[in-house]
From TrEMBL:
Family, per entry: Belongs to the HAD-like hydrolase superfamily. PhnX family.
Keyword Hydrolase found: yes
Active-site residue numbers: D8, K49
Annotated catalysed reactions: phosphonoacetaldehyde + H2O = acetaldehyde + phosphate + H(+)
Protein name from the UniProt record: Phosphonoacetaldehyde hydrolase
């Protein structure tokens, strides 16, 4: 039986559309006169933020712009310098992006009423999460456990943060755990950990739209975008993809039936 759910934070349970890090990534590169696109800024979302910067610099177009501007390809020292700019900027604004997404609080209440434990992983550092957790708790969201990349040898896509949650929540085997997230790195983390892995689309970084944009979007255009994100998650190994976070608990009896038949993720 499913005993625990491990949620991502931004783009999954708080910060609809995952805009806090996006805006800071754009500004950090803008300061270096490198104009990255929104899609480039979002592509590595979910990774530890220093790793995220490193991945952006590895992109062919971005590396070309860097070479043109600075006369050499990006170096590790450039990653360090960009991250040195990123961290204080992120710490200054992250408190503004802790609002739970629609349906999240009611979902957690239903899960707890059914005896499930609530874990969490993130691409944010421990220092960033010290701010986010306080602000989210004020708004009603406080999972039973949090693991940040600072607590383990490596963040996503490695499974270590999920394993730490399982140990803290006393849940085993790993197929009794569900991992839920809004990015490719979330899906890889869950698959690597051997958990049932679920992608959520509306509110996700992968979709990259705020609530107003989703409401105003032409239904056919929105449908196509949702289908594209769904396909991306499925290609990465997601066992299920849901449109909204509030749908998650509908999957639990489905997965429990599979477990009873001896099926595994």
């Amino acid at each position: 039986m499913i005993q625990a759910v491990v949620f991502d934070w931004a783009g999954t349970m708080v910060d609809y559309g995952c805009f806090a890090p996006l805006n800071v990534f754009m500004e950090v590169f803008r300061k270096r006169e490198i104009a990255i696109t929104l899609s480039e800024a979002r592509a590595p979302m979910g990774l530890l933020k220093r790793d995220h910067i490193s991945e952006i610099l590895k992109m062919e177009r971005v590396a070309g712009l860097w070479l043109e501007r600075y006369g050499q390809l990006p170096q590790e020292t450039d990653v360090d310098a960009l991250y040195a700019d990123f961290e204080p900027m992120m710490l200054a604004v992250v408190h503004e992006y802790a609002e739970p997404v629609p349906g999240a609080l009611a979902l957690v209440e239903r899960l707890r009423q059914n005896g499930l434990r609530i874990g969490s992983t993130t691409g944010y550092t421990a220092e960033m999460m010290a701010i986010v957790t306080v602000e989210a708790k004020k708004r009603g969201y406080a999972p039973d456990h949090l693991v940040t990349p600072n607590d383990v040898p490596a963040g996503r896509p490695y499974p270590w943060m999920i394993y730490e949650n399982a140990a803290a929540l006393n849940v085993y085997p790993m197929y009794n755990v569900m991992k839920v997230g809004d990015t490719v790195s979330d899906i890889r983390e869950g698959v690597n950990a051997g958990t049932w892995t679920i992608g959520v689309v509306l509110g996700s970084s992968e979709l990259g739209m705020n609530e107003v944009e989703v409401e105003a979007c032409d239904p056919e255009i929105l449908k196509a975008r949702v289908e594209a994100v769904t396909a991306k998650f499925q290609e990465e190994g997601a066992h299920y993809v849901i449109q909204t976070i509030g749908e998650l608990d509908q999957l639990i009896p489905v997965i429990n039936q599979k477990l009873q038949r001896g099926e595994r993720p």
